[in-house]
């Protein structure tokens, strides 16, 4: 992390630090860096959430990697909402939602899979669908009682 401290000193750039691994002992160093935000992989290391939020500076955003970018399975959005609702209440617009990592590990669009068994297909989520999950999750955190959001969550639970 020493190189991170020396990168672009005083440029005024708004940079975010993405660590696709657990922060562990590097958390205080990461939080002290002159970055606008931190991205954390909450799929692989959900236990780090409380420590990251507690140490976040008032001028930093948290990019919460809650949609698994490494597999093809749908996200349990109810579990994600339960985890993130108190954080959203605390951070407001400083909470950003993201995949846990790049979506390069998953196929692009489930709509292209025309010969899959319907039940199996209902369990899957490719890159396009994962971005739709992120959108629905964000709308659910912003307005959980919206009928459109509730309808989307019901459809998501069917699988």
Automatic annotation (TrEMBL):
<protein>
    <recommendedName>
        <fullName>Cobalamin-independent methionine synthase MetE N-terminal domain-containing protein</fullName>
    </recommendedName>
</protein>
<dbReference type="InterPro" id="IPR038071">
    <property type="entry name" value="UROD/MetE-like_sf"/>
</dbReference>
<dbReference type="GO" id="GO:0003871">
    <property type="term" value="F:5-methyltetrahydropteroyltriglutamate-homocysteine S-methyltransferase activity"/>
</dbReference>
<dbReference type="Pfam" id="PF08267">
    <property type="entry name" value="Meth_synt_1"/>
</dbReference>
<feature type="domain" description="Cobalamin-independent methionine synthase MetE N-terminal">
    <location>
        <begin position="24"/>
        <end position="91"/>
    </location>
</feature>
<dbReference type="GO" id="GO:0008652">
    <property type="term" value="P:amino acid biosynthetic process"/>
</dbReference>
<dbReference type="GO" id="GO:0008270">
    <property type="term" value="F:zinc ion binding"/>
</dbReference>
<dbReference type="InterPro" id="IPR013215">
    <property type="entry name" value="Cbl-indep_Met_Synth_N"/>
</dbReference>
